[in-house]
Design goal:
Belongs to the binding-protein-dependent transport system permease family. One of its GO terms (cellular component) is plasma membrane. InterPro entries: BP-dependent_transpt_permease, MetI-like, MetI-like_sf, OppC_N. The protein has about 325 residues and is an all-alpha fold. It has 15 helices and no strands. The termini are far apart.
Length: about 325
């Protein structure tokens, strides 16, 4: 008779999902305990959702010139005398519905701001890692180019790039490529900040033992930079990218306001403000006020999220 006790194997503990890890993280706890961050996130989400669902919720496509009717021009907001449905925020001098124009313009401003930050972030991360890891003449060349860009005003560089692109392109392509040109013009002077931040962190990390050990076992340089050094540089970069998102949207609005951004038939918030500014003192205040309020709400919510993220990721404040 076999009196041996059968061995039982316990199942390996189940690894929590990414959503569970996020819910139990200090970052999520900090977010829940920060009322201004919750308010800013809800506000930004509301703006983004309404902007990208604009074709479904707006009474008019402001980019379709055939949909504009001049006899519906200069209608005041619905609560003013003479207001008409469905033009809740009134119309401009061309019969364009202000609410539709604001939501469509917000979508353009958000896309250009996000794409320009993403492009600048990619270039800055790559050049900053290379400069901090290799050093020497490579570091000197990259940083001197960055110093040259920092020595000139941001808006001047962007205007110069847009002017050169507009003069070089055929007439038919200027309006088609207006958004990519703006993205490139905003990203060119913006990558320097990311590169300098990553370079400083990469120079510190490159001297640590785990990087030296990786070099001894002949791990490729690009793998060391991407898998070992880059994760330790992401905290300040994430905060900078969030804050620069608001600055990128403001830069696009500034360029469009100066007349070197989006064309009038594809109006962003800056273009709408430029057009409405011409009629500010003629009593048509709603043409400029509502796009300005929308721009302020977007930048305010992004900056509030950036301020919370900076405090939440700062180990000294925990």
């Amino acid at each position: 008779m076999d009196n041996s006790i059968p061995l039982t194997t316990s199942a390996a503990p189940k690894r929590p999902s990414r959503l569970t890890q996020l819910r139990d993280s200090d970052l999520w706890y900090s977010f829940r305990a920060h009322p201004s961050a919750i308010f800013a996130a809800v506000l930004l989400a509301l703006v983004a959702v309404t902007a990208f669902l604009a074709p479904l919720i707006t009474p008019q496509n402001p980019y379709d010139l055939a949909a504009l009717e001049l006899w519906n021009s200069e209608i005041p907001p619905i609560w003013e005398a003479g207001g008409q449905w469905p033009y809740l925020l009134g119309t401009d001098t061309q019969g364009r519905d202000i609410l539709s124009a604001v939501l469509y313009g917000s979508r353009i401003s958000l896309i250009i701001g996000f794409a320009s930050v993403l492009l600048a972030l990619a270039v800055g991360l790559a050049l900053g890692l290379v400069a901090g890891y290799f050093g020497g003449w490579i570091d000197n060349v990259i940083m001197r180019v960055g110093d040259v860009l920092l020595s000139m005003p941001f808006i001047l560089i962007a205007i110069l790039i847009t002017a050169i692109a507009s003069a070089s392109l055929p007439t038919g392509l200027k309006d088609v490529l207006a958004a990519p040109i703006l993205i490139f013009a905003i990203a060119v002077p913006s990558w320097v900040q990311y590169a300098r931040t990553v370079r400083a962190s990469a120079m510190v990390e490159a001297k640590k033992e785990y990087v030296q050990a990786a070099k001894l076992i002949r791990v490729k340089s690009w793998r060391i930079m991407l898998h070992h050094i880059l994760p330790n540089c992401l905290t300040p970069i994430l905060v900078a990218a969030t804050l620069n998102f608001g600055l990128a949207i403001l830069s696009e609005a500034t360029l469009s306001f100066l007349g070197v951004g989006m064309p009038p038939d594809q109006p962003s918030l800056g273009t709408l403000i430029r057009i409405g500014n011409q009629y500010l003192f003629s009593g048509l205040w709603w043409i400029v006020v509502f796009p300005s309020i929308q721009l302020c709400l977007i930048v305010l919510s992004v900056n509030m999220i950036g301020d919370w993220l900076r405090d939440a990721l700062n180990p000294k404040l925990r």
